[in-house]
Write a structure and sequence with these properties.
The structure is a homodimer.
Chain A lengths: L11 H9 L2 H11 L5 H8 L3 H13 L3 E7 L4 E6 L1 H4 L2 H14 L7 E5 L8 E5 L11 E5 L5 H16 L9 H7 L6
Antiparallel strand pairs in A: 1-2
Chain lengths: ~190, ~190
């Protein structure tokens, strides 16, 4: 089920947004990570209209982030469990959490990420898995990948042009470079 | 400007969603990271209705992710620049990008994150800054922070109960534990 169409759908960010659908979907995923599985549990947690919740659960199921499982035949009752695709979304939520804690919590943090065994607070940061370096501009940037079409290439070429005009690092990469360099990566 | 209100607004994820507002806002931020600053540039890139774009730029400015700067007096023209709060949102975008590349790009990656100097592809992963360990369940989980209210504590207590019922790691942390443990962290 598609909800919106965002210009160039090659962009993995736009595709992700399309799949997850709407803000409510993200809060449903958040609650699923907290162990909620049943319609009435989600409804109680979110205070959301039943028809909206039903629609969002359907979308998340069709997008493969949740799977529906019948847990009672009489009366017929389903629960919703995270799939691998759904579980993989958690870093996005924790990146949002870290951003919210930094910028939108003047009274202090209400929710944190902790080590499950020790309870020690974690400090979520996005890094490059191989080098361990923090992923931040200008040291890192997005670039066309091997499957990029002309639109995606033009968009990044124009961004490179703007960076040069602003006196930033010259753009030395290319999809070919990226392809070659993939040999370097540990699988 | 507030758009929606998501149940318990203590949750930093819900707050973040409220500030960023809508999917279009995220794609505007994506384009801002590509160096776009002007109304017509965003419009060309996104193929978005001018009134929608104007509204989203206004929201992002009021939320402090973009700042408006006049670059021409005659005719009056403004541009939109990322603030520190806006630039800090980039890891969220790259986490979405990594998820989209893993799950929604059967034809290969169209956009990747690269080292700006070498062009080598990065592999974005969320880790705990101190220990370097990958942030993933069940080794990590979210928990009430020092500013948590009763609602937030109840939500996490119920999640801990569900984890126990499912045979997962017992919940040994608490806000007090988190507070104590914060002394361990390098600032």
């Amino acid at each position: 089920m598609r909800h919106k169409s965002f210009g160039n759908m090659q962009c993995p960010i736009a595709r992700s947004l399309e799949q997850v659908g709407e803000w409510w979907s993200i809060l449903i995923l958040r609650d699923a990570f907290h162990g909620l599985t049943r319609f009435d549990e989600f409804q109680r947690s979110l205070g959301i209209a039943p028809n909206v919740l039903a629609r969002r659960l359907k979308t998340l199921t069709e997008s493969g982030l949740l799977e529906r499982r019948r847990y009672s035949e009489r009366p017929p009752r389903d629960e919703y469990l995270l799939t691998e695709r759904g579980r993989d979304f958690r870093p996005v939520l924790w990146a949002l959490l870290a951003w919210g804690n930094k910028h939108l919590a003047p009274e202090g943090k209400s929710v944190i990420v902790v080590d499950s065994e020790t309870g020690v607070e974690a400090d979520p940061v996005l890094v490059d898995r191989l080098s361990g370096r923090t992923l931040a501009a200008p040291a890192f940037r997005s670039a066309p990948g091997p499957a990029a079409d002309d639109h995606t290439r033009r968009r990044h070429a124009s961004a490179a042009h703007k960076r040069l005009a602003a006196g930033h690092t010259p753009d030395t990469s290319s999809a070919d470079g990226a392809r070659r360099n993939r040999g370097v990566r540990v699988p």
